[in-house]
Design goal:
Helix content is about 80%, strand content about 0%. By secondary structure, it is mainly alpha-helical. The chain has two domains: about 1-95, no CATH class; about 100-180, Arc Repressor Mutant, subunit A. Helix 1 (about 5-30) crosses helix 3 (about 60-90), helix 5 packs across helix 6 and helix 6 (about 140-145) crosses helix 7. The relative contact order is 0.07. Belongs to the sigma-70 factor family. ECF subfamily.
């Protein structure tokens, strides 16, 4: 680990100690008393830690609020997508309707995929969500995230490989669930 990395980690650690309780209180105002508050607050600092070449921050609370707000929007988009999908399944014809077990299995699969996506760095995950959920083009994503179109392409390839790996493992998960 280089001196710059250690300095960056120490700086973010100091910001965490100074502002984490404040950020949680602010998020509680938006999200209520949910488990999402601490998840989003922690992910905010994780993204800050992953930011390369961070210059001294004059207004740390403004930056933390901006990062947290983006994470809240992503959470809401995921929930809206899940809700829309479940509504579509409920509105399907009786012949096409899935059993409660199949719905549970589908929901569990979505949650496993979501956990896989959460392990990706913030910009990689954001790139995928902006493309697949918001339907943005690569140039639009590049402008939104302040990255090059080449980076967008690389990030999309990375997340698509993760999705392929996830779907390849899915039959194994179903077999394991049935035999358990």
């Amino acid at each position: 680990m280089s001196g710059a990395d250690l300095s960056h980690r120490n700086h973010v650690g100091g910001l965490f100690r100074a502002h984490y309780p404040w950020l949680c209180a602010r998020l509680r105002g938006q999200l209520g008393a949910s488990a999402d508050v601490e998840d989003i607050a922690s992910e905010t600092f994780t993204q800050l830690l992953e930011s390369p070449g961070l210059t001294p921050i004059r207004e740390p609370r403004a930056l933390l609020t901006t990062i947290a707000q983006r994470l809240i929007y992503q959470l809401w988009r995921r929930r809206d997508l899940e809700r829309q999908h479940l509504e579509q399944l409920q509105n399907a014809d009786a012949e096409q309707a899935q059993s409660p077990e199949e719905l549970l299995q589908l929901t569990q699969t979505l949650h496993r995929l979501d956990r896989s996506l959460e392990r990706l760095p913030g910009k990689v995950r954001a790139t995928f969500l902006l493309s697949r959920i918001d339907g943005l083009t690569y140039p639009q994503i590049a402008a939104e995230l302040g990255i090059s179109q080449r980076s967008v392409s690389v990030y999309m390839t990375r997340t698509q490989a993760l999705c392929i790996q996830h779907s390849a493992n899915e039959p194994l998960n179903r077999t394991t669930q049935r035999s358990a």
